[in-house]
Amino acid sequence: VIHSFVPSPPFSDSFFPLPSHQPFTMLSKVLRRSVSASRGCVARVVMQTRGKHGLALPNLVRASSKSISAAATSPTSAFTTQRPEDVGVVAIDSYFPRYYCDQTELEQHDGVGAGKYTIGLGQQEIAFVDDTEDVYSLSLSAVSQFMEKNGLSYNDIGRLEVASETILDHSKSIKTYLMQLFEESGNADVEGIDSLNACYAGTNALFNSVAWCESSAWDGRYALVVSVDIAEYAAGPARPTGGAGAVVYLVGPKAPLVMEPARGSYMSHVYDFYKPNLTSPYPVVDGKFSNICYVQALDQCYQRFTQKWAVAQNAIGDGSEPSDFAVSDADYAVFHAPYNGLVKKSYARLRYNDFLRFPEDDKYADLRDQFGDVSLEDSYTNKPLEKALVAAMKDDYEAKVAPTTYLPRRIGNTYTASMYAGLLSLFCTQPAEELADKRVLCFSYGSGLASSMFTMRFRGDAEARDQITRVRDTARLQERLDNRIKKSPEEYNRALDSRATKYASDGAFQPSGSVDDLFSGAYHLVAKEADGKRTYQKRQ
What we know:
Number of strands: 16
Distance between the termini: 40 Å
Number of helices: 18
Shape: globular
Largest sheet: 9 strands, mixed
Radius of gyration: 24 Å
Strand order of the largest sheet: 5-4-6-7-1-8-13-12-11
């Protein structure tokens, strides 16, 4: 694994393969022991990562029209003090079920006013699954298709984080089901595990993955994050806010979308949405209170974020004058999207936050004159204020937020994947040239509650533009959405009711749904045994 320690002349580029089933085992221990024994010398650490065609792939990340480079860095730089640059989202894609229900038809079926779901909630369609798919099959489909479309080997993954609140087992993680995909490669050295807290867990998994890539423990491989959920509600007013799907994002250096350092978080103990019934997939929801919690968390995160932004600007020390962050400084904004109406109101709310920070600024004269005497507490339920903010931010919303809502409006709420479905929408709806050097403000919220606000920045170089274009070309969002099967509201309701019955059962069952309706290459449940074991197959 390691050449003898010798003075520093250049070494050859020969590679010494490790056993394929243990590509990184013992490397750290050997390196640390050797380094501690020698000073002023250079170690040549070499390692062979075998791709699916048996090729050694130690190259740096580079853009490609066909695939992503198979190694995040040369293994010679792994476990050194040299830190990777531009860590962020290297690639991103989604998997969603083939079944959907039209929200206009659901309005008519439920006997509500026209536009209640399509205009009030701001949703077009709702994705759902029958008993042939579950959270494990969605994860398997998402990861297997992501890896194949991007030309990656499972040996290229050193960390796998899964985020979900859709729980079918109170002990065994979703990540362990995904390790079936890694078996052929022999790669079992994969850090990370599941994260859980309502819709926030996907962001927690992203933060963990970025921290790993930037840490001394990083071994040169990519981190893979899977956010996956099935949002189901009991019959009633919350059911139209459901959805289903997964978003997979690859984290590593030389990313086209780079994490920036400043972020603000707000955590609290509330009962706005929770799932205390362990025999039901349905949550207990206080919808009005949950909306208030969301907006309060938005306020708190924005205040903390802007404070840390100023600190980060001062820390740069490049001679430029530090500036306060305002919502106008974000080129785009993406939000956790339980439904799009809340996203629209929340973006507008940021203008009110800027007014509270700079009340004497003339640009906020309208708010000062009309709502200057409204207390912060009263502002959360003040409808005239809300309408005024939405109207004032209408043009900005269309330019900066609407491009991020494409997929969430088409598949519905996907809980942990929701904000990242918005991020993928941005990749797929905007030309790469338009995204170059643009900053994205991100707000992640999970009931209970946990929330964070942070920014990411698109690189502007040609390599990054190629990477952005590749995301759009491999995702093929519109093509796949148009290839779905529309189901009636009656069929939608029957599917959810049937799934709830089977969820509560401890007995064995075999799915009754049609495997032929699934997308090609999707995984599906074959059977659940009496002892709870589940088996899956890939539809050819």
